[in-house]
Amino acid sequence: MPVSRPVRHARPPERRLPLNAPVRAWALSEWALLPLRFFLGATFLFAGLQKLANPNFFNSASPNSIQAQLIASARISPIHMLISHLVQFATPLGIIISLAEVAIGVGALLGLWMRVAAIGGAILSLNLFLTVSFHASPFYTGADIVFFFAWLPFILSGSGTRLSIDSWIARRAAQMEGAPAPELVAIPFVKVQQLCGHFNRGRCSAREGLACEAAVCPVLLGDRAPLVTRVKIDSVDRRALVLGGAAAAMVGTSAAIFAGASAALGRVVGGAKAPVSSGQLSSGSTTTTSGSQTGATTTTTTGSNALGTLLGPAKDVPVGNAATFSIPVTGDPGIVVQATKGQFVAYDAVCPHAGCTVGYYAANHVFACPCHGSEFQLETGAVMNGPAPHGLHKLTVAEGSDGNLYLK
Q1: What CA–CA distances, in Å, run from 29 to 15, 34, 175, 214?
Q2: Residue 68 has what pLDDT?
């Protein structure tokens, strides 16, 4: 008779978390912070490449240039004395900022030298907060302070042991030294006590009978608990430093080549909106002084009559173009545009969001803020795109019979 064999049922596949994450991975910062890490990396990489690929960022005549942003920030920043001296170095400073953003973004995305990248990102975000968005109102509308605090967890924890080059280097260095892989898992401490051979009635024999505590548990500390293993740990750390330096050099070289190619492509392809170069109104009754705070030459108007305060010749503002001037009462920068023949519109050029100075774009007839992208209508000064809470303050400018412009 044929022998019957028991029917074997197929074993169901083990349930695993995505990316082969360990059980309770969400309780570990290295896994819980992955979305934030990738977001910060992508944002800083895009910001750096966007600056390098935009010719207007390095064009001093553009209201979106790094020079225009520094001049605007010098008026409102708590570190304005420092910024005023940096205006003359605007172009090299812009290049340094752009390349730094690319390096920080690449480091965060790849998880390479993550703490160094996070420190760089926090410093850059803090500087942007102090120079650009310090007076943003309410304060949470300024993104720079949020980015500063978003970098802090990575300064404390690094990139973790997964999905990063740092973790690969750490595992490789440990393998070469015969040390265990530095992988972390989340486990309730009561489970540690149940499995630990040193735990006995609330006491730890490995700690000479002291109370069992999660903060100093030798099981959780692993090889870093006893001092006798310090030599092996130092050897692993030195090997990881060498491997990390080599990886950083290769990635840095590739990132520099990619950044240079992006800058060249941006200038060949174009696509950036061309700004209108704003002239400076002047008249015979004005005195010109060198502004020590902004590093730029400004015009202070002193002449006034029944028609108003003299700004300068109307011919200095061609149709479709803009010119700037200083508002006598407040000292704020003003901007005037001849929208059509004989029709002039003027505004206080200070953006109501963070105090930057707006510029005029003739292609789409708008005023644009170089700091956070707020846009305002030419005809009314109303907000078209935020985060500015309200529109520009409108001024009354008229052309006199003598061909000059007057501020009423």
Answers
A1: 22, 8, 24, 18
A2: 75
The Cα 350–Cα 135 span in angstroms is: 12
d(CA 295, CA 397): 27
Tell me, what amino acid is at 354? A
Q: What are phi and psi of 288, to 5 degrees?
A: -100, 130
Please provide the size of the chain in residues: 408
- Asked whether the beta carbons of 344 and 337 are under 8 A apart, the reply is yes
User: With contact defined as beta carbons under 8 Å apart, do 391 and 298 qualify?
Assistant: no
Q: What 8-state DSSP symbol labels residue 303?
A: -
**Where in the chain are the domains?**
17-186+226-272, 279-407
pLDDT, tens only, 123-173: 999 998 988 788 777 777 778 999 999 999 999 888 877 788 888 888 888
pTM: 0.63
Residue with tokens 């898992």: 185
CATH number of 279-407: 2.102.10.10
Written as six digits, the tokens of 292 are 């020590």
